[in-house]
Amino acid sequence: xxxxxxxxxxxxxxxxxxxxxxxxxxxxxxxxxxxxxxxxxxxxxxxxxxxxxxxxxxxxxxxxxxxxxxxxxxxxxxxxxxxxxxxxxxxxxxxxxxxxxxxxxxxxxxxxxxxxxxxxxxxxxxxxxxxxxxxxxxxxxxxxxxxxxxxxxxxx
Length: 156
Ligand code: INI
Hints:
Blueprint: E1 16-21, H1 25-41, H2 46-49, E2 50-55, H3 61-70, E3 76-84, H4 91-109, E4 113-120, H5 123-128, E5 130-132, E6 135-136, H6 137-155
Parallel strand pairs: 1-2, 1-3, 3-4
Antiparallel strand pairs: 5-6
The chain binds 5-nitro-6-ribityl-amino-2,4(1H,3H)-pyrimidinedione.
5-nitro-6-ribityl-amino-2,4(1H,3H)-pyrimidinedione (INI) is lined by residues 21, 23-24, 56-60, 81-84, 87-88, 94.
């Protein structure tokens, strides 16, 4: 049998930085709710080990995530935001900037940076992914953050 490296969903000992962009805030707050709920359900110490930062829009998420990751105070950083094509003429630029920046922040710092940003054509689709018909992308990102934090620790 090969040696297995696999992150487990036990958040108890890990510290998380969350960054939420304010654009489309009403939906973004539901993503934050989903993220915190998932972290709590997997044993995270919400009061002691979770920090929430807010920034203007999805374009600004990567820099805040990178700065948080560089502090060494977090085992994973989760970017949360909502980009809606219908209301955004520069949708492609914003989504590309956010995705590439988040990936770069992770690679530059060695800290997992998760992408809990809803990118949709319509407001209705965004609402569906923020705690209604289609789950909660914040909760999904939280679980990925826990798994990655644990996997990184195992790799050492
Ligand atoms: N930012 C978002 O997070 N979501 C959007 O839908 C959006 N729209 O519609 O433009 C958006 N734009 C702002 C952008 O992220 C920056 O904050 C802004 O360009 C200043 O740098």
